Amino acid sequence: MEFKDHSPSVRVAAGPNGSVTYLVDGPPEVLPSVRRRDLERAWYAAREAAISGLSSPVRGFRFRRPDGSHTDVALADPNARCWAGAVDGTIGLGSGYGLALCLRLLALVDLLARARWALPLFRLERDGAVLHPSLLTAAASAPLTAEARFDEIAFRADLAPLPALAAAHRTGTTT
């Protein structure tokens, strides 16, 4: 599968307090799909960064919408900043592809933190979570919402045919 990056341009601005702002010429919904293997590498880079206690600056994203309005997303949470820093250190966040990779990683973490139905698809271990490959496949291609998240209902529907979810549903372990 060949990926053509038709993503919006990204300009990077450093703030006086060390923060970083990404000015994106388009909304989160138009960011491209990413390669599953790139998302998996980003997952492991973020995991290693978290284990090593990497700190990263506050990051802000300003997405310009077609009507001229803006959507602003801020990463103030230390964990999210660490993970974004790991992606920035590997592929970079100065391109639409790198930004899409980072936001998909963060959207997946957000989804897994609140979607009890996904419990059969990942396992928490001492050094982080181990994901079912289908989660990475879905996260690599699922569209982002205007808030740079995944639509939980659509994401779950993409995973519905999986035996792990079907088995969990039959035993009543999903909500």
Question: How is this fold's topology laid out?
Answer:
Blueprint: E1 10-14, E2 20-24, H1 36-52, E3 59-64, E4 70-75, H2 78-90, H3 96-114, E5 122-125, E6 128-131, H4 133-141, H5 152-159, H6 163-171
Structure, explained:
With 175 residues, the protein is of the alpha+beta class. The chain is built from six helices and six strands. It has one domain (10-171). Helices cover 43% and strands 17% of the residues. The strands form two sheets. Strands 1-2-3-4 form a four-stranded mixed β-sheet. The chain has a two-stranded antiparallel sheet with strand order 5-6. It is globular and about 45 Å long. The model is unreliable at 1-5 and 166-175 (pLDDT under 50).
Overall number of domains:
1
CA-to-CA gap between the ends? Answer: 35 Å
Largest sheet entry: 4 strands, mixed
Could you give the order of the helices and strands?
EEHEEHHEEHHH
Strand order of the largest sheet: 1-2-3-4
Globular, elongated, flat, extended or rod-shaped: what is the shape? globular
Q: Name the helicity range.
A: 40-55%
Instruction: Report the uncertain regions.
Output: 1-5, 166-175
The DSSP helix count reads 6
Determine Rg (CA atoms, Å). Answer: 16 Å
Strand content: 15-25%
Number-wise, the strands total 6
Structural class: alpha+beta
Overview in brief:
With 175 residues, this protein is of the alpha+beta class. It is built from 6 helices and 6 strands, in the order E-E-H-E-E-H-H-E-E-H-H-H.
Descriptive terms for the model:
single chain; 175 residues
